[in-house]
Write a structure and sequence with these properties.
single chain; six-stranded antiparallel barrel; five-stranded mixed sheet; 3 helices
Length: 337
């Protein structure tokens, strides 16, 4: 009998544990006991994290002499046409020579840049610039190969070859004739080329204003071109905003923010459709849920920002529609209704 009593007690305790798990633990994990939530104000930020490739109108200048340098402008300074950027205290040679007196050309580290530039590089003995622009002491040799005129023809494969590691600093104590020494960049407009998921192409309507976020700052730009190329959306942004490192940067990680607003947020799983209208189910005074039409302003695929209190339905002759209010209780899963 004692053994039977012990088994009964054990079974009773196990039954309680199982019932406790089913009633309290499982629902909390699965969310079954949280069929609704409170509508609150929040922020909906829609963005793409990607790589931006900088495209500019720029000209690289080469040293006309060999010797010590003296610079008259800092990086990023705006200079006028015919402004003198630097001077080289020439030693009378057209280049350095080795122990046998044979001329030594530009340093090997600049060979790639010079090869890419070809005849597009500029040489002026007085180091005066031809155009108004921003002076920069950085170059990577793509100043000729990548320009606003030809960027449309370049595919993702070309841009992926670009690297910030290829950008070299040009400012130094002495130079050899023929080496790159500075460049002048047009600041009135410059471009960013980016590639994002093709499904997000509709976020980038031509002319739309986009916020570009860098690790160390942000700026506004407008969509200049947007098209699907090779399974990706190729987005070209145009801007005239000043970014401190715009002349020295070729490649940078960015966030392209296409929407950033505050308002009432609902979960997309709460949205249903009745009689051709989108809406959510709101809990009434009798604890039953009833359908309330909504107007969606934007969605990130998981949550949506909607109108609150009321909106005007333009598809129904501007009819005023009473809609969700802050602190309304919303049915979490519309399909369960």
């Amino acid at each position: 009998m004692k053994k039977m009593k012990k088994k009964t007690i054990v079974l009773f305790v196990l039954t309680l544990v199982v019932l406790y798990t089913i009633i309290y633990i499982v629902p909390k994990v699965s969310g079954a006991m949280v069929p609704s939530y409170i509508a609150e104000y929040g922020q909906l930020k829609i963005y793409d994290e990607t790589t931006a490739y900088f495209v500019r109108n720029e000209k690289v200048y080469l040293a006309a002499d060999t010797g010590g340098t003296n610079y008259f402008f800092k990086e990023g300074s705006l200079v006028r046409k015919d402004g003198r950027i630097m001077e080289v205290k020439a030693n009378g040679q057209t280049g350095k020579t080795d122990s046998n007196g044979n001329p030594i050309g530009p340093d090997k580290k600049y060979q790639r840049i010079l090869g890419n530039l070809g005849k597009k590089a500029v040489v002026r003995e007085d180091y005066r610039v031809r155009d108004v622009g921003v002076v920069s002491y950085y170059a990577d040799g793509y100043e000729k190969a990548l320009t606003p005129k030809n960027m449309k023809k370049k595919g993702e494969a070309f841009f992926k070859k670009l690297s910030q590691k290829d950008v070299l600093e040009l400012r130094r104590k002495s130079v050899i004739a023929g080496e790159p020494v500075f460049k002048i960049v047009d600041r009135t407009e410059w471009f960013l080329v980016c590639f994002v998921d093709a499904e997000h192409l509709d976020r980038y309507e031509v002319g739309k204003r986009i916020k570009v976020e860098f690790e160390d700052g942000e700026l506004d730009a407008r969509v200049y071109r947007a098209s699907e190329v090779g399974g990706k959306a190729k987005i070209t942004l145009r801007t005239d905003y000043y970014y401190e490192k715009f002349a020295e940067t070729r490649v940078a990680d960015v966030s392209l923010v296409t929407y950033d607003e505050s308002g009432v947020i609902v979960e997309n799983g709460s949205i249903a459709e009745e009689k051709g209208r989108q809406g959510v189910y709101v809990k009434g005074k009798n604890d039953e849920f009833f359908f309330v039409p909504i107007q969606i302003y934007a969605t990130d695929g998981e949550k949506s920002l909607i109108a609150d209190d009321f909106y005007y339905d333009l598809e129904r002759d501007g009819e005023m529609v009473i809609t969700v209010e802050v602190y309304d209780e919303i049915l979490k899963n519309a399909e369960s209704k």
